[in-house]
Known about the structure:
Elements: E1 35-36, E2 39-40, E3 47-50, E4 54-64, E5 72-79, E6 82-87, E7 96-97, H1 104-112, H2 122-134, H3 138-154, H4 159-180, H5 184-206
Antiparallel strand pairs: 1-2, 3-4, 3-7, 4-5, 5-6
Amino acid sequence: MKATEWPVSRRATPSDPRVGLAAFEPLAGIRWVESRGGRVEFKPDELVVHPRYGIGCVVRLAQRQFGSNRAQEYYEIAIGSGTIWVPAGVPGHGLRRVTSRTDLNRYRKLLRSQAVPLATDSKQRKTDLAERMKQGTFESRCEVLRDLCAQRSIKPLDENSGALLRKVREMLCAEWAAAEGLSPEDAAGEVDALLLEGREIHSSSAT
């Protein structure tokens, strides 16, 4: 594990992202600045998305030192039953706010849109999908899920692609639930219905 993203404690957190804002006691005595040098600032109890670990809740901003690295500011993020520390203001770590509810209509259209065929070579397919997932955006996750589901409807996925499909679906549905104010189960139902609708539309238009 990199020192820049270090799970240092275990803590009980709600499985439902909707209760994240009420699950943590207010943190007193911490000064938060809305903007510093053009970087995005996050506040305690704000729901955020990490490109690798998914949706979490900001606990605090604190000075930390890991190993021989110099002390710097880190966001403490509670994700699931664990905690990670993400450097504040460091490009490439991709911490972002949860997609807004008003943007979900655009992503509904994206999930229903025509899938992009994946590479037939398994190694190339794995590389391509990994690069797309590195973007960490909600849009890229919608596209990856759409394309993997379309591929699965044609032929069974290999082990790597199947594992990625389960992971990206879980992450996308968790963020969808937080944005729309749904339970994870209801969000998953809507996402699956949109994907199925899109495949049926494009399957009928191809015949």
